[in-house]
Amino acid sequence: MYDQTDPRWSMTDASAAPAAVATTFSGADYGLFYGTDPQIVDEGARTWLTRGQNFLVGYSELETGGALSRNDQVDEYVLLLPDRETPAIVEAKGEQVEVSGFSLVILPPGDSRITLPEGGRATRIFSTKSEDLNALCANADSYAEQHPNVTLLEPWPDPVGGFRIRTYSLDVPPTPGRFGRIFRCTTLMVNYLDEQHGPRDVAKLSPHHHDDFEQGSLALAGTYTHHLRWPWTTNLAAWRDDEHALVKSPSLTVIPPPAIHTSRGMDEGLNQLVDIFSPPRIDFSKQGWVLNADEYPAPASLR
Prior knowledge:
The protein is mainly beta. It has helices at 131-136, 282-286, and strands spanning 29-32, 40-42, 45-51, 55-62, 66-73, 77-81, 88-92, 95-99, 103-107, 110-116, 120-127, 166-169, 182-184, 189-192, 196-197, 215-221, 224-229, 243-247, 251-255, 260-265, 270-277. The protein has a single domain (7-293), classed as Jelly Rolls. 4% of the residues lie in helices and 38% in strands. InterPro entries: RmlC-like_jellyroll (IPR014710).
């Protein structure tokens, strides 16, 4: 259910594939990076890790000259630099690229290194094919068994021209009819939502659900209330209480299917949310909203 001013109002094909009627449900997962100890402390960086079924988030705070390294990475991953004053040096596949702050970077498989000469914060988003990172996630036990209703990741086609460092400015102005600032790679879709200043209008919320994929909601500024409601089935034992989770920044909320959900920015200042999906969403792709779609083709069956 969307307000008619929301670009998603007329959208169809919300799921990646037809889904059976759900009879069992999982709860939401919350990574409250602001209130917990980091899982990794290394190379002048502190990193908090929380996962979903197909994706995981590593939120890091780095000292001046701090670095984040990956060796033998099995697939692409995404780097978010949300602050304009936080440039980075990104190295991978024999390339070294100087990246401005307020950017999204896609890094190739293999060895890579990210250095923040002036320190600051950075977020990396991986698929859960990185078993070493899966094991370190604060909520690893939640995924000891596969969560119900989630279609497992099948990577999309390789990028045009092969795997390499790809950089994109997040300084993309809103366009009428386009939802957010959406980028995808072979395993992930990231929507760096338009800035929200002040509390969200409670008369224009967007309660909706996904049949077969999780949503990661990464809060990078402000405070959010995530409202969640699970369906009732004939089995009372499967019912779950509504949740109205108030979370600060930085944090990650993993919203399971098919929970009805909507998120409400609460602060008077900036509220900044980033939505994460794995695999990339078919419906958003079909709308033409993906800003780097010319570099990352959709599967042939969807074209």
